[in-house]
Design brief:
270 residues, alpha/beta, nine-stranded mixed beta sheet, two-stranded antiparallel ribbon, 6 helices, 13 strands, 29% helix, globular
Length: 270
């Protein structure tokens, strides 16, 4: 029986979010909070593996109390258990501090039920770094398989997994021992509508919530702002692109105009 843990995050919907022109920061109140889309596909893939090979799917997140909604969404998709670490000490964490906190939570989960596979989205849409998954794998000392577009096979007897990793010019097939960590692409699956029983379960579900004091052997200096060597000093909206230049006149005149532009910007084509 496999125990798969999906690491997830609640994020603002970047399709709707606006920038505050005075402070040059994201106005998070302008957009609803949603389950990170990449993580949703990770949970869906975990549920598919559970149905195919048998086992249990747990989800783990770090965030403020409202992040419970993201866990409930995962229960709708088909996850069995949800865990959340929530504490003021986690606030302001960068990717390094986040991976540390999630690793400590994973270690506690593993004491309850040994973990065979950790799965997460390729990245979050609010940060776009893709660093947390590999950071967790490094701390757990397990192989990280990134940009996974397909899980070919899981061999429970030999504790092996075979996946396809997405490349710029194709894909490669990788075999890894279990446990390992997968960071998946959106194209790995399509998420169907949640069945009514799952939705009813999610509405009633109460996840396990832990604070810093509930985690073992933890170094508080590696949490939150104290444990974050990187900071975002400024965020701003990119300037709107200027409109293009319309070519006018006869065809031969337009061709000459285009050649003039190409010759003027020839260094861009070298």
């Amino acid at each position: 029986m496999l125990h798969i843990v999906a690491c997830i995050k609640q994020v603002p919907d970047t399709k709707i979010i606006k920038m505050n022109p005075k402070t040059n920061t994201m106005d998070r109140s302008s957009a609803p909070a949603i389950l990170n889309p990449y993580d949703a596909h990770a949970v869906e893939e975990a549920v598919r593996l559970k149905k195919k090979y048998g086992g249990t799917v747990s989800v783990l997140t770090m965030g403020p109390p409202p992040a419970v909604k993201a866990i409930k969404k995962c229960i709708e998709i088909g996850a069995d258990e949800g865990y959340m670490i929530s504490d003021r000490a986690f606030a302001g964490a960068d990717t390094l501090a986040t991976s540390y906190a999630l690793t400590k939570a994973l270690e506690k989960i593993a004491q309850i039920h040994p973990i065979d596979l950790v799965i997460c989205g390729k990245m979050t849409i609010d940060g776009d770094t893709g660093q947390v998954g590999p950071g967790i794998a490094r701390r757990l000392d397990i192989p990280p398989l990134t940009s996974v577009k397909k899980i070919v096979e899981v061999n429970k007897k030999e504790k092996l997994i075979i996946v396809q990793r997405k490349l710029e010019d194709g894909y490669e097939v990788i075999q890894s021992p279990l446990p390992c960590l997968l960071a998946v692409e959106k194209e790995i699956n399509k998420i169907p509508y949640s069945p009514l029983p799952n939705m009813m379960k999610a509405a009633r579900y109460k996840p396990n919530i832990w604070g810093v004091a509930d985690l073992e052997d933890i170094d508080r200096l590696q949490l939150g702002l104290k444990g974050s060597p990187t900071i975002v000093s400024k965020v701003w909206a990119p300037p709107k692109p200027k409109g293009g230049t319309m070519l006018t006149g006869a065809i031969d005149e337009q061709v000459q105009q285009l050649l003039d532009v190409v010759l003027e910007k020839k260094e861009l084509f070298q």
